[in-house]
Amino acid sequence: MLLHAPRALYIHIPFCTNKCHYCDFTSYVLKGQPVDEYLEALEREMIATVQAMPPEEIRTVFVGGGTPTVLTPPQMERFLAMVKRHFPLAADVEFSMEANPGTVEPDKLAAMREGGVNRISFGVQSFDNALLERIGRIHNVDDVYRSIEQARTAGFSNLSIDLMFGLPGQSVETLADSVTRALALELTHYSLYGLKVEENTLFHKLYERNELLLPPEEDELAMYMHLIDRLTGAGYGHYEISNFAKPGYESRHNITYWRNEPYYGIGAGAHGYAKGLRHVNVKGVQPYIDATLTRLPRLSTETVDEREAMEDFMMVGLRLLGGVKNEDFMAQFEGRRIEEAFGETISRLVSDGLLERVTDTGNGGYKLSAKGVPLGNEVFGAFLGE
């Protein structure tokens, strides 16, 4: 396993303007929340973290949520200054921040630029106002266009948007219209996610009562294949199951996760992985704040043994359309080859036409076949507890 200090940093801002119907993330409606106290707690965790595991140069930062852009401009300045104060950022750092359309007025964007943010990921989800309302989003399509324009005016050129498919009442035709509008923006990156009905969400309650009218599976597959055709046809590289980018604009931070490399996780409910340990932080805002007063705010920490790390390597690595390489596997696992660890599973998946061999590297590797891409979850699950 890789035992060097993380070169990637994730920070969680758990506040939102409202809770979307499908969301099970650690997020809380902003009104009445102790935001400034939370920022103080974040800094305490940063200090304790770098003392416990001194950082090397940080190559990627990702600020997620929640909606980080609900911070006011002064709060944003304060927050970004503390990141720079405690973590040594590379000159070419990829510094991403999630944003909700309608929450990025010019003063805030200026604070983000000044503070080092150079990539924004907007949670758009759809270009259909009725559908946005149905899933609990509070922005509308006009907010999307205005926010993208404001971001570009502020000097941001590396912009991504999320779109969702398989939503209640969504058809292939309505998705196709959203894709057309999204592509017209000519952004550098698009993330396209199928709806998962998670527990502890409004959608799950409706699902349990048979009141959530989801598209049939064949329509959901048709939506996914339509997305692939349209995005690749427009010149975007399909570099990960759910992600498309212009050359050179792939999400470097997320590639850290997909390569099973270490990362710091700071903030309420944040996950981190380093030196064979995986941790989850305390989730509630006030419990998190209180925990940072005396210790690292861990909810749980578990040791990841070599076998589990190997399984993780395969499951997340095969999400990348370039696949997994033996040289990377050997670097993480003391010279062992993929075939030594997973020979039977690999043979079966290749025989079934779901995986194909990669031969353009010295030690070879494996990637999803065209047949395997829409069946990715089946492939990933095959590596669990072989």
From TrEMBL:
Location (main, coarse): cytoplasm
Entry keyword Iron: yes
PROSITE patterns: RADICAL_SAM
Compartments where found: Cytoplasm
Keywords for the protein's UniProt record, in alphabetical order: 4Fe-4S, Chaperone, Cytoplasm, Heme, Iron, Iron-sulfur, Metal-binding, S-adenosyl-L-methionine
Keyword S-adenosyl-L-methionine set for record: yes
Pfam families with a match to the protein in the record: HemN_C, Radical_SAM
Domain Radical SAM core span(s) in chain numbering: 1-234
Function: Probably acts as a heme chaperone, transferring heme to an unknown acceptor. Binds one molecule of heme per monomer, possibly covalently. Binds 1 [4Fe-4S] cluster. The cluster is coordinated with 3 cysteines and an exchangeable S-adenosyl-L-methionine.
Family: Belongs to the anaerobic coproporphyrinogen-III oxidase family. HemW subfamily.
Name of this chain's protein: Heme chaperone HemW
Organismal lineage: Bacteria, Bacillati, Bacillota, Bacilli, Bacillales
